[in-house]
Automatic annotation (TrEMBL):
Keywords: Aminotransferase, Pyridoxal phosphate, Transferase
Family to which the UniProt record says this protein belongs: Belongs to the class-I pyridoxal-phosphate-dependent aminotransferase family.
Any one Gene Ontology cellular component term annotated for this protein: mitochondrion
Upper classification of the organism: Eukaryota, Metazoa, Chordata, Craniata, Vertebrata
The species this protein was found in: Triplophysa tibetana
Name of the protein described by the UniProt record: Kynurenine--oxoglutarate transaminase 1
């Protein structure tokens, strides 16, 4: 176990090394880059995710690099939601969705994940499910979008293919956009697999390639709408490479949708903000030749961060699916920490819900109110 952790720590260095190289990478590394994404980064994101989604992603059209996933979400809501639109949000949810919908003039409509009935107290996030009937009832002619977050913050639920298919069918039926927040996509545990909703229904296309269909069938299959055309998939370099302070994120989707996000991006931040505070981090990383200083007002260009993320993704592209892959090593490391945290929570009388993915763990705290009511010595003494 110790060796594994050591190994992971060693491997995390690849992203720090990429960062240091980028810092020293010449004058152009400290200037503006392409507003919609540093070319090296959009190219590797497109190459990496084309293979995963099974869809040719155009780096210049279908990818937008943003100030963290947060700004990708902001651009998406501002671009796609109009006054009076409804946006379905699955509870529990990452807290910015609701205010962002409101700021865009929309109305949030909630639908809860609930523990499956009759199976006793839930122990795993897998036991929390959507009621298909309840979800269906939330779609109205005013529904513009639904937000799906898998793996979910804070519950840790990782949606099953069947659950995503059910959501996808409703999106297609009601002509609704899916905003898929997948920032924790590489953090899944116990063999749970992350599935991309943007990929759903692509199998029809795949079938077309292998099965001989007559002309009419081919036409029908090709004209059936898939999820790629209506999904904005949001990712974060901060979560992907455990460097949350970098604030590099992205939105990937059809250029027909992305062009509207780009308009918001261009006319709000235009380009990722400079990252002066990173200097402190560089010191921690031990870079010897610092040529700029926080106090002088010379700031570190975000191009450096984007270049470093591009190098990180290129490395992952090269080792994907092997033990060398950080995307395999990181969940192995967090798996142990997750179990340790669950043990701690149990030891003080709480019931943790073991997350299938993500960074967070929720716990049933009803025992605490029992302690408080009875003035329990156990709780008050420890306090
Ligand atoms: N989505 C979810 C579900 C998150 O938990 C977070 C960060 N906590 C974000 C988006 C924002 O990510 P970033 O730091 O890349 O802006």
């Amino acid at each position: 176990h110790a060796r594994r952790i050591e190994g992971v720590d060693k491997n995390i260095c690849f992203i720090q090394e990429a960062f240091c190289k980028a810092v020293n990478g010449g004058v152009h590394m400290h200037q503006y880059t392409r507003a919609f994404g540093h070319p090296a980064l959009v190219k590797i994101l497109a190459k990496f995710y084309s293979g995963i989604v099974g869809q040719e992603i155009d780096p210049m059209e279908d990818v937008l690099v943003t100030v963290g996933a947060y700004q990708a979400l902001y651009c998406t809501f501002q671009a796609l939601i109009d006054e009076g639109d409804e946006v379905i949000i699955v509870e529990p949810f990452f807290d910015c969705y609701q205010p962002m919908v409101k700021m865009a003039g929309g109305t949030a409509v909630y639908v809860p994940l609930k523990p499956r009935e009759g199976s006793g107290p839930a122990k795993s996030s897998a036991e929390w499910v959507l009621s298909p009937e309840e979800l269906k009832s939330k779609f109205t002619p005013r529904t513009k979008a639904i937000v799906i977050n898998t793996p979910n913050n804070p519950l840790g639920k990782v949606y099953l293919r069947e659950e995503l298919q059910m959501i996808a069918d409703l999106c297609i039926k009601h002509d609704v956009v899916c905003i898929s927040d997948e920032v924790y996509e590489w953090l899944t545990y116990d063999g749970t697999k992350h599935v991309k909703i943007g990929k759903m229904i692509r199998w029809l296309y795949a079938c077309q390639q292998i099965v001989w269909l007559n002309v009419t069938q081919r036409f029908l299959a090709a004209s059936l709408p898939g999820m790629w055309e209506r999904t904005v998939t949001i990712g974060s370099a901060g979560k992907t490479f455990s460097a949350t302070g970098w604030k590099v994120g992205w939105a990937i989707g059809s250029h027909l949708i992305l062009k509207h996000l780009k308009t918001v991006h261009q006319n709000s931040v235009y380009h990722c903000a400079t990252a002066a505070q990173v200097e402190h981090k560089i010191c921690v990383m031990g870079v010897k030749h610092m040529s700029f200083h926080f106090l002088t007002g010379v700031t570190l260009s975000p191009v450096v961060l984007k270049e470093a993320v591009a190098v990180g993704f290129q490395r992952e592209y090269d080792v994907f699916g092997t033990e060398e892959s950080y995307f395999q090593q990181l969940p192995a490391l967090l798996h142990e920490k997750r179990l340790r945290l669950a043990d701690c929570l149990r030891s003080i009388g709480l019931n943790p819900i073991i997350p299938q993915g993500g960074y967070f763990m929720i716990a049933d705290i009803s025992n605490l109110s029992k302690f408080q009511k009875s003035g329990s010595t156990k709780y008050s003494k420890r306090k």
